[in-house]
Design a protein that fits this description.
six-stranded antiparallel sheet, 19 helices, globular, Jelly Rolls, alpha+beta, 7 domains
């Protein structure tokens, strides 16, 4: 009874706190820009960031006002409703660019005290405020005796029994019943796909007949008889948004209440409101002034000279340190238990067993899963890998160019050192997607011919290569950063054992015999060689021609670029012409799988059995060869699941050949305009996912790759579909790399009519917004199933984008949308996609959204549709219907030939 009273007092305390907070005057809430000094930033082991706050003046509004219950151990954190306990940190710092919604998990428990003579009880649960929405699903445990639990659908007006509890013959405790929860005193059922995030339950008591003493009055005094307890099993996921305005456009009209107050922050719509995010290259909290910043925490000069650099048998070199003033930044502060031989060196909870300063790695005991995201609450500087006891670190979350602009904070201070960018493989195992490379930051390395510590003055020292065994077949001479060899003097030879030149012994007789035999074999070989001379002459001419082409196409430059990029995980390969001729049966015409404006594509099988697409471009101007080589080196490093992989090239022909990943199922254009009799088509959900994946690939090229890349020829025929119906963007024949300090490039007009940006056509200045315009045309194709240039019923040739914009402005969009889209998509989805296409097709590039914003919008539309399909799947529908239409599924089951063999199309320009 004492425990029960304590629980009731705690609940009353929480509810009273919430009630007081909800009646605070409007002026007591902390609006953007208001000071948060003195506000608690944690509750127990959970951290809290604005717009959340503990206390009304510390949060943005009533929904974000939290309560910390210090009477529990550890203290517990509750949302504004007083019953939803927060289980995760409410921190918005260092968020990923792809984060659509802020999501955290909660747990709740509610008790209904039963009254004599009352047998029916109702209970409704709603999100703790307009700013929140329940997502996913959870399991509810209902504890009580002799109950029928019903799920009440307020929208449909139906009641469905969810579960039932029965009473045991003997009294049972609530803890035992909840632990088993098998219908005896406790029952459980799943809750998911909630309407507006709320649900309504009805409890009816009295279905069990009383006999043999079951349910007797003595038993009915137990807690199982006098109350109904409702708890979740495993937590409930909640997403949050700023909902004081419906979208970003409306929010930015009132700057006094606009949430995205930090410089270098941006706003994106969430569907129910809006949220804020730091721009690319910045991290932090976008909801507070100056919350988004780039990494400036590195100090290249230690403040102390008498630093202890040993911990047991491990040497701790700068920029790391174990004493104050001896490390370059707080995240590099290590803890040494003592300085004896049995000392333990710690980095947070990692026991360091070794380190390599030049490689930027730690060895440690134990292992971590995926990326070690934050240490000491700072930026992401440490990266670990599953199954490997190794951590890689970077000096700062900056590119080399950004780091070198701030010379006072630049880490590579040693002469003969250089900056190296570090990529890490991020594990998206939660989504079961392939791993992708992401840029982490930079580290320093001694240049070739030097070794040591590049982070201190004169730390890189010359390597004496002459100490390496058998590096020269003669005398070795070391010079700074390199070495050179000279031949042994006359009458001496190089001794492999002694590694020096020694005097040669004279064997006259043996030498005479050898000379005689060599002369005889020489004459014999000369007679045979005359027979093959003419035949070999032709071969040598071809070999020399290939060599000349290789030099003219700057093959040495590409080899240098490939060998110098040590950060690349999968380097480009320079293929020989002989290897590609063998792969394509000497470029047999039967191997042609496509041709278009930029060249011809052949299907080939390499010696390692990889199936590839080999592209023979049209003539490239000699002045553009150097730019072409640099683009091959960069594009071959792109590793994105929605971009066709460039394996390498061949430079032994007049026009270089490109070797791509082979995609078997043709292009989006072929699927859109295929004859309906072939039985293959995609559903609206499939097209929407392909559009989202394509936008993600273009956004990656624009902003997430190490060098910004403009595609310059986005069209439906350049979006391939693989055997898993995943989008693959290809054809970089017109692409251009963009330096980090430029926003556009001036070129001759290139592209495909119907997709060409009008602003680019007039100004000849191409930027990322030109790719956005072309993508907008692709969205219109998905809605209307019409080609970019088409002939109207009157016989006139029309531009699809102009036709679409005219119909949209007149409110007639549903009259021109394809019938399949009208059948499978809701009117809201059609209007949202049409509005996004209109935004992409604006004449002024500065008024168009970025590809990142387009991707986020499509992800929101896609996530809403997935939620709806999950509800349908629970009612018995197959999840495969999200991808293929019924006609396509029947065709795939009945066909004996794969789609890739029927279309025989891969990695091509198509039309």
């Amino acid at each position: 009874m004492a425990v029960l009273l304590q629980m009731m007092y705690a609940s009353l305390f929480l509810l009273a706190s919430v009630a007081l907070a909800s009646h605070d005057p409007e002026g007591s809430w902390a609006h953007p820009g208001a000071t948060l000094e003195g506000c608690p930033t944690s509750c127990g082991n959970l951290s809290v960031d604005y717009p959340f706050g503990i206390g009304s003046r510390c949060s943005r509004g009533p929904d974000f006002n939290l309560t910390c219950d210090d009477t529990t151990k550890p203290p517990t954190l509750f949302l504004s409703d007083g019953i939803s306990e927060v289980l995760d940190d409410l921190a918005v710092s260092y968020q990923d660019d792809g984060n659509l919604d802020k999501i955290f998990s909660t747990s709740f428990r509610h008790t209904i005290l039963m009254k004599p003579g009352v047998h029916v009880y109702d209970w409704s649960f709603k999100p703790p405020g307009r700013s929140f929405e329940y997502i996913g699903q959870t399991a509810l445990n209902i504890t009580g005796c002799d109950l029928d639990v019903y799920w009440v659908s307020d929208n449909a007006g139906t009641t469905t029994r969810a579960c039932r509890t029965v009473c045991p013959d003997q009294a049972s405790t609530e803890m035992v019943a909840r632990h088993r929860c098998n219908g005896t005193g406790c029952c459980s059922f799943n809750v998911g796909g909630l309407d507006n995030g709320a649900f309504h339950l009805k409890f009816v008591q009295g279905h069990t007949k009383i006999n043999n003493g079951a349910g007797s009055k003595s038993n009915r005094t137990a807690p199982l008889w006098d109350r109904i307890s409702i708890t979740d099993d495993g937590g409930v996921m909640i997403s949050w948004s700023i909902v004081d305005q419906p979208n970003c456009v409306a929010a930015m009209r009132d700057r006094t209440a606009y949430a995205c107050v930090s410089k270098n922050s941006d706003c994106y719509d969430t569907g129910e409101g809006y949220a804020c995010i730091c721009n690319d290259g910045y991290a932090g909290n976008p909801f507070i002034p100056d919350g988004c910043s780039n990494d400036k925490g590195y100090s290249p000069i230690p403040s102390r000279a008498d630093c202890t650099r040993r911990c047991g048998n491990i040497t701790v070199e700068f920029p790391l340190g174990i004493e104050e003033g001896c490390f370059a930044r707080e995240e590099f502060h290590l803890n040494c238990t003592n300085t004896t031989s049995s000392a333990v060196l710690l980095l947070e909870d990692f026991e360091v067993t070794g380190m390599n300063i030049e490689k930027g790695t730690f060895e440690y005991n134990g292992h971590t899963r995926g990326q070690v995201e934050q240490i000491s609450g700072g930026p992401i500087l440490f990266v670990g890998y599953e199954l490997f006891s190794s951590l890689q670190w970077v000096a700062a979350n900056l590119s080399c160019l950004e780091a070198q602009l701030n010379i006072s904070g630049y880490a590579c201070v040693s002469i003969n050192s250089r900056c190296v960018g570090v990529n890490a493989t991020t594990d998206y195992s939660f989504f079961e997607a392939p791993k992708e490379d992401t840029y982490v930051g930079y580290r320093c390395k001694c240049t070739d011919g030097f070794k040591g510590n590049p982070y201190i003055q004169n730390g890189c020292r010359d390597i004496n290569e002459c100490l390496q065994p058998n590096i020269c077949k003669g005398n070795c001479h070391n010079i700074e950063g390199s070495f050179y060899c000279t031949e042994c003097p006359r009458n001496t030879e190089y001794d492999l054992d002694k590694m020096q030149c020694t005097t040669t012994k004279q064997h006259i007789l043996l030498s005479g015999i050898i000379i005689g035999l060599c002369a005889g074999f020489g004459i014999l070989a000369l007679s045979f060689s005359a027979t093959f001379l003419i035949r070999r002459w032709n071969t040598n001419v071809q070999r020399q021609l290939r060599k000349n082409y290789f030099q003219r196409n700057h093959g040495l430059l590409l080899e240098s670029l490939i060998s110098s990029d040590e950060s690349a995980n999968d380097k480009a390969k320079i293929f020989s012409l002989q290897e590609l001729e063998k792969a394509t049966d000497n470029f047999d015409r039967a191997r042609i799988i496509g041709s278009g404006g930029h060249g011809t594509v052949y299907k080939g099988i390499l010696s390692d059995q990889r199936v590839v697409a080999i592209k023979r471009p049209k003539v490239i101007e000699q002045a553009e060869i150097t730019q072409f080589i640099n683009e091959v080196a960069i594009l071959s490093q792109i590793n994105h699941r929605n971009i066709v992989k460039l394996f390498g090239c061949c430079l032994e022909t007049e026009v270089p050949l490109l070797v791509y990943e082979y995609i078997s199922c043709g292009s989006l254009s072929q699927v859109l305009y295929a004859d309906s009799s072939n039985g293959f088509s995609l559903s609206w959900d499939g097209y929407l996912r392909i559009a989202m994946e394509t936008a993600g690939a273009l956004s990656y090229l624009h902003s997430a790759a190490s060098v910004s890349i403009f595609h310059r020829d986005v069209k439906s025929s350049n979006i391939l579909i693989d055997e898993d119906y995943t989008a693959k963007v290809l054809d970089f024949g017109a692409s251009r790399l963009v330096p980090i300090d430029q926003t556009h490039i001036v070129t001759n007009v290139q592209g495909t009519f119907g997709y060409l940006d009008p602003e680019y056509f007039h100004t000849r200045q191409f930027n990322g917004k030109s790719d956005v315009y072309s993508f907008g045309v692709v969205l219109v194709e998905l809605l209307l199933r019409m080609k970019p240039i088409f002939t109207s019923e009157s016989g006139t040739i029309q531009n699809l984008s102009s036709y679409f914009l005219k119909e949209f402005s007149e409110g007639g969009i549903t009259g021109i949308v394809n019938s399949q889209v009208l059948e499978e998509a809701s009117e809201e989805e059609i209007n949202n996609v049409a509005s996004l296409a209109v935004a992409c097709l604006r004449l002024r590039g500065e008024e168009r959204p970025t590809m990142k914003q387009v991707e986020v919008k499509l992800q929101i539309l896609r996530s809403k549709r997935v939620k709806l399909c999950q509800v349908d799947a629970r009612n018995g529908e197959q999840t495969q219907s999200m991808l293929l239409t019924r006609r396509a599924r029947v065709a795939r089951r009945s066909s004996t030939m794969p789609l890739g063999d029927r279309d025989n199309v891969a990695s091509t320009d198509n039309q």
